[in-house]
Amino acid sequence: MTGGAGISASRRTDYRSWGGTIRGEHLVYRPPTMTAARTALAAGGGLPALAYGNGRSYGDVALNPGGRLIDCRGLDRFIAFDRATGVVICEAGVRLADILSVLCRPDADGSGWFLPVSPGTRFATIGGMIANDVHGKNHHREGCFGNHVLGFELARSDGSVVSCSLQAHPELFAATIGGLGLTGLVLSARLQLRRIAGSAVEIEDIRLQSLDEFFAVAAESEAEWEYTAAWIDCLAAGSARGRGIFTRARHQPGVGVPAPALDPAITIPFAAPLSPLNRLSLRAFNAAYFHRLGPRGRRHWVGSYEPVLYPLDKLGAWNRLYGRRGFFQFQCVVPEAAASAAMAGLLARIAASGEGSMLAVLKTFGDRPSPGLLSFPMKGATLALDFPDRGEGTRQLLARLEEIVVAAGGRLYPAKDSLMSADAFHRGYPRIGEFLPHLDPGVSSAFARRVGLDRALRQAA
Amino acid sequence: MTTPDAAGTPRVAIFGATSGIAAAVARRYAATGAALVLVGRDGEAIAASARDLRVRGAASVAEIVGDVAALDTLGELAERAWNALPGVDVALIAYGSLPDQAGLEADPGWVAAMLSLNFVSPTILALHLARHFEAQRAGVLAVITSVAGDRGRKSNYLYGAAKGGLQRLLEGLRHRLFAAGVQVVDIRPGFVATRMTEHLPQQGLLWATPDRVAADIMQALSRRRAVVYTPRFWRLILLIVRALPRAVFHRTSF
Asked: For B37, which of A355, B82, B178, B247 is 20 to 30 Å away at the CA?
């Protein structure tokens, strides 16, 4: 251990992101209080730092090999909750699971406060969700997480703390939402929860035979169904291309369900040298999954929101299933006009490669703008995939997919990314110029260096 | 949980309240609507925990800032806790430190400080608390010791000596307080991923989360158990470790 004055840090090689493809050594701080976090950020002596949450982003936005990491999981306390207004103030390391379990217990009539926006896991932290301006299956209704952030306290590497909101320091507020942790370290945040008439959800699964059918069902569902997304069998080629299952859900008034557990029931204990997810098992899984709806091709029931919002949280550390080499996520969004053609192009390219993805998810985004300057969603369609890291072939496939997205005027999602080119990033995010002045010079990340944000900062300085 | 007051609200005093295990126990009590007293050295951390526990449902949370390493203040700390929450049902002593064994072996001054924090201080505090419990003829005194106290091993015998001493103390106190109807609980965790152990890898099948350990502690307190290993598999491991003949034990390297 090193350091003094109550701040200690240790050299560690075990900090990873969810994809597990990046290894490196970090000087890690684990501050127990917000004051200690602020002190750690300012104590760099020239070595840049980065906030680390619960390690649920997939690529390199939360890693800073060779530099410092400030592990914010100790900042896991609630500060205040107003049951009348649904406004919660909490430290940045609080997880969605904590909010669900403590604040979202339904009243006797099933109604209660609920998360306005949930990413696909409830184990992400508030700080991480602000930094990545995450979205959920209700983007077409509620926008991004950043749309529901009322304000936050941002520590900067010069030792200052800035209170940001739409009213106070609005430019820094906008830069920090989706700002990938590069504007400083969020200490605490004030969030607006949403009142719902029932925490249980009515769920409908509908079999899809084609991409056209996906776009038709999505358009028809958006007005009445709050949560929508489709699983696509990305190994299906030819006439079966685009087949999948569309899931839509909405809160069921008058019916409450308890919050899911704070930790997964089953955890994968270790990563095998070789992944059990190979071409053969993926093909079998996708075919079986597609046919699970039975001959009617439709299912309808009322139950917990857990399988809809957090289908993978049942299985702790499921990323270990991809073996020790890890896996890449790829998530893109393409503007509405080009969406249908681009998605067809992407699926054709993936099917031809044989590099299957078990979890191909297709969804339409709405047009509600986020305050975030680097926010990922735009009106259009988004496709998310994961690929076991099989080396050069996988990287080449992802480069081809990136070309299709960029040509269609779309962009990739930094929270899931390990490979996008600097060019794709700069073309996809037209407000980078507005963002750059807000970078904190004492902060950096592997992602920032990879896409040239870091260099831009050095040149500007 | 344990002999609650008329309103059904357990009254719980936690010494070393911001330690990883204590914080997890406090959260579980808060969720049941308990009244809490938090005692700790870092005023900011105690205040932050108190706010958190109020949001989580605690009926009340009193904050006491004090340094348990200052031995002559321990009587006053116990007194203040009792004044803040008269009729404490459960007192939990949850502080300690786990310094590097090699560093300790080279530094007698550090050994003295470690023994003081891990043995002398909890012993004196437990004696003060025992007097309060004896007077009210009810309650549970719980102390976090360690599986390291079960047998001296070369990798951590100095820490183990302090924790083993604490185990003997609790054994004697249990004998003494039996007549007064006061239960004494000796909680022996294995590897728990907290700040105290952050210099260790904290990964693998033997490691537990603070919340997992807190769940075991809550159960042990409500069932008024005497000795509890947490997670429970440590009971079996230590049974084997204690039973190993010296000739075999000395050839091991753990």
From this structure: B178
Q: Do B31 and A102 touch (CB under 8 A)?
A: yes
**Pairwise CB contact (< 8 Å): A78 & B56:** yes
DSSP assignment of A214-256 equals HHHHHHHHTTT-SEEEEEE-TT--GGGTT-EEEEEEEE-TT--
Residue A247 CB partners (closer than 8 Å, separation 6+): A203, A204, A205, A206, A227, A228, A229, A230, A231, A308
Residue among B48, B199, B205 whose CB faces A269 most closely: B205
Asked if A10 reaches chain B (Cβ–Cβ under 8 Å), the answer is: yes
Question: How many cross-chain Cβ pairs, A to B, lie less than 8 Å apart?
Answer: 45
B35-40 and A380-388 strand pairing:
unpaired
User: For A9-68, what is each residue's pLDDT tens digit?
Assistant: 889 998 999 998 888 999 999 999 999 999 999 997 789 999 999 999 999 999 999 999
Q: Quick check: B38 and B115 in contact, CB under 8 A?
A: no
Least confident range of A89-93, A273-277, A350-354, A378-382: A273-277
Query: How far is CA A220 from each of CA A212, A335, A365, A391, rounded to the nearest angstrom?
Result: 12, 19, 14, 41
Cβ of A91 within 8 Å of Cβ of B48? The answer is: yes
| CA angle, residues A383, A307, A201, in degrees to nearest 5 | 105
Q: Provide, as residue numbers in chain B, all residues whose Cβ is less than 8 Å from the Cβ of A103.
A: 55
Q: Return the pLDDT at B201.
A: 77
A455 phi/psi in degrees, rounded to 5: -65, -40
User: What token pair was written down for A192?
Assistant: 């607006």
Check CB contact of A195 with chain B, cutoff 8 Å: no
The minimal CB distance from B195 to the residues A32, A91, A102 is found for: A32
Cβ neighbours of B42 in A, within 8 Å: 32-33
Asked if B29 is an active-site residue, the reply is no
Residue of A nearest to B42 (CA): A33
Q: Count Cβ atoms below 10 Å from residue A23 Cβ, excluding itself.
A: 12
Reported pTM: 0.92
Full DSSP string of A352-391: HHT---S-EEEEEE-SPPPS-TT----SEEEEEEEEE--S
Please tell me the distance in Å from A35's CA to the nearest CA on chain B: 8
Helix H segments across chain B?
20-31, 43-55, 74-84, 101-105, 108-115, 121-136, 157-177, 210-222, 233-243, 246-249
pLDDT digits (tens, 9 = 90+) for B153-179: 998 999 999 999 999 999 999 999 999
ipTM of the modeled complex: 0.90
Strand partners, A87: A82, A192
Q: How many CB atoms lie within 10 A of CB A252?
A: 20
- Bridge pairing between strands B183-189 and B140-144: parallel
A77 min Cα distance to partner chain B (Å): 5
Q: From CA A220, how far away is CA B162, in angstroms rounded?
A: 69
Closest in A30, A32, A79 to B51, CB measured: A79
Tell if the CB–CB gap between B48 and A102 is shorter than 8 Å: no
**Interchain CB distance below 8 Å, B52 and A79:** yes
Percentage above 90 pLDDT, chain A: 76
* Strand, helix or coil for residue B244: coil
Q: What is the helix, strand, coil percentage profile of chain B, to 5?
A: 50, 15, 30
